[in-house]
């Protein structure tokens, strides 16, 4: 019993943390509640209920399934659902008409055959990556509606009326979802993607900052045995490494969104993915760099004279602080959607240092190179 | 029209490729078709239909939604659905009983209030990562069933009988799905995860192989201007970098699976995730290494004398071929689930070389270090 209580308390704490991290989550929960309450009015008001009959259920079902966190996701699901229902319903009615021609014995056999073939074909199409990414939900609904219409046509008399009612209720459900998600505290996937990319660049910048400030400063003081594993700046880029799937799903939803804020419809979302990929490459070279730092210092490095070492260190420190400045510039330029003017200056300063010290083989040149690539692509976008 | 035709042809080609890559996908498509046809028998056979009435629809719905590619995913969805329906149905009936006490006017208000609160709370719980990972689908179904039962209780007379029918049909749907997915050409998430991890290790090994064979061989012949970007061994590790989300979802589903093949229930799936994380670290240092290779050779490296350079190169070549051997050992050990005995030998050979040549600062020591970590964790597991 004590264990159970501790678990409940742990859960409550986690829920509180979630809510504090992003208050829009609470708003979303209330929006779901509101949409459901709105749709259930159709049950309570007599004339509305008798217009739709038992099909009202489908409106409730649609709201529960379609309502998602971001506007883009809700739109994509809602449109997928409405369109797939329409197509599959029409096909189902057609299948019924054909099957009826075959007489009482042949009808169920033919219907079962149609269902088998179409379900198999549609399931297979879900393995194709493009369909999986954009229309996965639509295909599921297609299978669902087609089999429901085709199969139940065997028992239900007024098929057309039923299909009509069902389509109307689904449209109502989708409309309610869209209204609540667009007009009440909307959460735009595009905005989220925008912030995520800018934030990731800031994280990379803070790595360079920490690197310049802590690592080289320590070295200058002659302390090399510090515990690098625990430093916060060595952890900060790790979340960047794993951001791929989140970025992709956000970009996928953002494509469905109408123009909002400073984003127009058909905003070049794929550029964000490119910047994201470059940040991940940058983060992965940081990963290598930090392993190098965290490794115990090798005892014997007899070849380099201390004077050269000092020179290299100072150069590296400057490179990383210039890189940090450039990254911060870029990130704030993305946030304000302007052209990063002084970033070029910082970058060329870093590059000048870099080429001057190129003969000294150090890992910093790796991240420098990646970093140039990041900026170049960014400039191409804006 | 010509554009449309080209698109259709492109689609067909892609579908063919998908089918050839993994023939189990075709089997899966037919399994979905079969399960749907089986469930639609309930419509065609009169006594069965009259036992369940219109609720038969729910069996079809369940089959379409629950049927997934791997056994683990189907099991997790099916159990989630059945359990959530049971709990939500009971709560819905309870809510109805309470609401009835408030009289004709109060009933709809109280019902709407219940729906609002529970839907909001359940939606919020979906943001908590643990629930999101394992019970996301169950929570959706919980909201769905609760609102359907609570809201329709206002209009429907024989609530208990309806709930009973619905539960029975959902159970039938889940049972059909499980039977087809477990007994007909099962696709085990655990097996897939196992193969994926072993395959990723092999990819890393092939990188080392290619590195040893092509890069150092070229250098020995004095050709440094080859086009490294295009080499296949430089592309092969990239898929390893992005395997995180796939591995996690497979491990998640594998937890639900009963014992199959050589895997028991409660097989230590989390170890696979650890190995996967280490392979990704290894791949990310390879990424850094290959950027270094692909970069144009710096013109001036005056400090090192050619004799030392040659020595370093030979050492690096040996290190990477030993590493490749060790990785291949480990991978085949994972495949056969035995203890990797000779991998230790290869690894210590590589390490001996490494420490001997530690004074030569080259990136290979980076990947060497990561690599030791990979093996160490593996040995701990087996």
Structure described in brief:
Helices cover 78% and strands 0% of the residues of chain A.
What does this structure look like?
The structure is a homodimer of 382-residue chains. Chain A has helices spanning 2-21, 24-44, 46-52, 56-66, 71-100, 103-125, 129-152, 159-183, 189-220, 238-241, 244-254, 269-294, 306-336, 342-356, 364-381. Chain A has 382 residues and is mainly α. The termini of chain A are far apart. At the A-B interface, helix 1, helix 2, helix 4, helix 6 and helix 7 of A face helix 1, helix 2, helix 4, helix 6 and helix 7 of B.
Shape of chain A: elongated
Helix and strand content put the structural class of chain A at mainly alpha
Q: Summarize model confidence as the mean pLDDT of chain A.
A: 70
Count, helices of chain A: 15
What is the percentage of strand-forming residues of chain A? Answer: under 5%
Query: What percentage of residues of chain A falls in helices of 4 or more residues?
Result: over 70%
Distance between the termini of chain A: 60 Å
How many beta-strand segments of chain A? 0
In terms of quaternary structure, the protein is homodimer
Largest sheet of chain A: none
Largest interface: A-B, 77 and 78 residues
Radius of gyration of chain A: 29 Å
